[in-house]
Amino acid sequence: MNTKNIDLDITKAESSRLPEVDFDNLTFGKHCSDHMFLCDYKDGAWQTPKIMPYGPMQMEPSAKVFHYGQAVFEGMKAFKDDNEKVWLFRPEENFKRINISSKRMGIPEFPENYFFEGLETLLKLDSKWVKNGDGNSLYIRPFVIATENGVSASPSDAYRFMIICCPAKAYYSKPVKVLIAQEYSRSADGGVGFAKAAGNYGAQFYPTNLAKEKGYQQVIWTDANTHEYLEEAGTMNVFFRIGDKLITAPTSDRILDGVTRKSLIEIAKREEIEVEVRRIKVNEITEAHKQGELKEIFGSGTAATIAYISGFEYDGTYYDLPNLEKPYSTHLKKSLQDIQYNRAKDTFGWTREVKTT
Ligand SMILES: *Cc1c(COP(=O)(O)O)cnc(C)c1O
């Protein structure tokens, strides 16, 4: 890890907005912490990064991000343990991934030392925004946008890398019902599905709205060619439990390489739960359902950690999932959160303390 000190211009907020935030009634992503990190790319180089008070910024209407969607993002979390220490979970994975996404979108890669110095300084300034207690966290949103002015359809020669942070609360996540996609697709071979490219998410809203009208909160995406293979659930990776075995699709250029997914695979292996990483067909789960062998389906991602799925519709038929007494998902979620909140020994070396003093 490159931790060489860098120049960082810091302008502190005059006062904190923290007292204005009602932590008992938080809407995810609505409030941002006092400061933000930003770094501009121009003349072929990333300029001196800055931390400044969170607030609006001026851009020209012709800025390329508004026209061609040249934008990528990340999602990660900071956790506070019972001794007021702040922890990041596998942040180097998010750093690597934003550059993978950037590369695919023709955006220059961001330097590692800028990322970590910026992130850790930001968290130090806004450490009071990280609340302890199970499920509480500070959601961290790094992103990059194309800022060159001019509406010609060509890659931008100017970019802005930013990090903003939003407090997130423990929420009781109700099990969701999902619709298995048979018409729309999230991503295609050779496309950008593996990247956290902004347009991937905008493109999901319409088919997800249609699913909502039918009473489903999310769509399980299938492969664009045949709609036979199960790929992702909304903006999460997805696991299926058949009998005592967990199955999840291998990552590819259509499937995002989720940090939660790969962490759960390792935790499951440690706990001697059998995991198969392989392609899985819709008719395998409908068959397993008929045999009474389909026990659980859950999504995995940083925002929700694990989202339990209570049932799904496919081809006009609704399939209800059993209400297990000891689902793998509950157990795995607890094991993962114990590591994230520094309640259990992190034998994997995943957590990274942020010095806040
Ligand atoms: C972000 C994301 C995930 C989950 O990734 P994590 O690193 O676990 O948060 C899964 N699928 C898609 C499409 C995503 O955008």
UniProtKB/TrEMBL annotation:
Pathway: Amino-acid biosynthesis; L-isoleucine biosynthesis; L-isoleucine from 2-oxobutanoate: step 4/4; Amino-acid biosynthesis; L-valine biosynthesis; L-valine from pyruvate: step 4/4; Amino-acid biosynthesis; L-leucine biosynthesis; L-leucine from 3-methyl-2-oxobutanoate: step 4/4. SUPFAM superfamilies: D-aminoacid aminotransferase-like PLP-dependent enzymes. Pfam families: Aminotran_4 (PF01063). InterPro entries: Aminotrans_IV, Aminotrans_IV_CS, Aminotransferase-like, B_amino_transII, BCAT-like_C, BCAT-like_N, BCAT_family. One of its GO terms (molecular function) is L-leucine-2-oxoglutarate transaminase activity. Keywords: Amino-acid biosynthesis, Aminotransferase, Branched-chain amino acid biosynthesis, Pyridoxal phosphate, Transferase. The modification N6-(pyridoxal phosphate)lysine is found at residue 196. Its EC number is 2.6.1.42. GO terms for biological process: isoleucine biosynthetic process; L-leucine biosynthetic process; L-valine biosynthetic process. Acts on leucine, isoleucine and valine. Belongs to the class-IV pyridoxal-phosphate-dependent aminotransferase family. This is Branched-chain-amino-acid aminotransferase.
